[in-house]
Input
Amino acid sequence: MYLQFNNKKGKNGKIYSSVLLCEKYWENGAAKTRVVLNLTKLKLPNEVITGFKTALNKTKGKLIDSEDIKISFSTDFGYAFTILSLMKRLRIDETLEKTYRGKVNIIKLMIIGKIITRGSKLQIFNWIKRNDLMAKILSINTKTLKVDDLYFELGELSKFQDTVERKWNLYHKQKTNNIYLYDITSSYFEGTQNELAAFGYNRDKKKGKMQITIGLITNNEGFPLKIQVFEGNTNDHKTVNEQILSIKKSFGAKNMILVGDRGMRIRLNLEELTEEEKQGVSYISALSSSEMRALLKDKVIQLSLFAKELSEVEDNGIRYILSKNPILEQQKKELRENLKQRFEDNILEIKRAWQKRRDQNLENQEKLKNGHKNKKLVIGFSNKKLDNYKFRASELIKRYKMTKFYQVEITDEKFAINFLLEEYQQARLLDGKYIIETTVKKEQMEKKEVRNKYKELQNVEHAFRDLKVDKLNIRPIFHRNAEQTRGHVFISMFSYAIIKEIETAVYPWLKEYNKANNRKLAYKDIVSELNNIKLSELEIGYKMKKLIIPQLTPIQQEIFRILNVKTEDMMKI
Output
């Protein structure tokens, strides 16, 4: 027997519904249907009809009253499960399990917790304390876990960093093609007690804050391979040779191309290495403005070469790729003119103040000549007053980046502002123009590819934004111990590797999806969609439990598809 639900439209347009209890039977070799009872005429409540249907359709088990079905717990799980899946796919857990002798589960907790909470070790600790499911998955005993356990494992992990990175690179070597992007950044501290903290060039624009310097090596797509912490006052170029030797030793790279920005001074650093150490090392970098002017002065290059989209000159085994960006050229000219005008307006304010005091001094001199009774009238500038004017002028020159274009001379007698027109015009000639230098052979990489490889450094800059601000927020740093500080940055590299994997899949899809659907979804919306996927446990009747997830929305299904995450795997947790 079964229930048949019918909807029939009457002549007046009204819909008439009926519920029939039917059965199938055979007659003369044919299947026929017989109506046993019209339940509609009995005017039964919907709940009774539903129960009747359940009883007829039930093939096993016992009937359960709706009041006996309860949700014992429900937790945000879609995002956490995605992170777990990607951690396994990227072989992060395998890398750690084969190289680290400490508690790998706590390291994995901090990697996952950093992504989800974007917070400190204390926040990660509090998060796992209230998330029994994740604790169970990671084999974390929340009853015995202490915050100090997280700090201890950070310090221990840093001692194994070289070993871990060697295994990590072995698993991802196919992604490099022997091309390594390298850049450095800084991250500031709260407090002054960290063993690596020092005052240096602060990229975070945090005045009065000590910092560490972080060097990151990635493949050409920005996938992280190695990260290192230096003292906060370490200059960019001082880290280059150490990284070259580390790549050759730890990664076993017999041939490598190092891509770094102009501040790395790779060519000069290579000169400090032995022939054996720099064997097989090529590089791609860019020249500073002063180096470009030196090439012009020595007639190695000419300005006319910038007329083409790309030009190339070779000199002493070094290839120089010349290019320009018309949009950047116009922007730089407008910016410099703006800074120049603002500098002149402000320096004239200082000059007017000087002139006012100067006029007062001359007036006082005349008064004294004419027998003025007050013999203490100020008739000249004190050294302190002159130094004040000089300091204000020098600060203006630095603030508006006019050091090369103006000379300001301030004495008792004059306030001279000398504009260096030739230097200014020379700088304008190089606006929007850049030169990439490389030792990579032409047969290995043509000039356009060299330029493209240099531009890929923006992938490392993107990684720093994700690490420091957008996705992980590793700053400010509160650790004091050097080993724990290195461990903090190291686990953040693995967290970023997972973020990078998500971005690589999601960003192209987001672009197409927003265009097709007139939407403006961003990465954070993807995270929200994943977080909205709950994992719940149902208590059904007497001592029966079942894990369930809700029906995924179309966009959630699409996110899982592009990330290659299987919903059925969630039920295996």
About this structure: The mean pLDDT is 89. The first helix runs from residue 46 to 57.
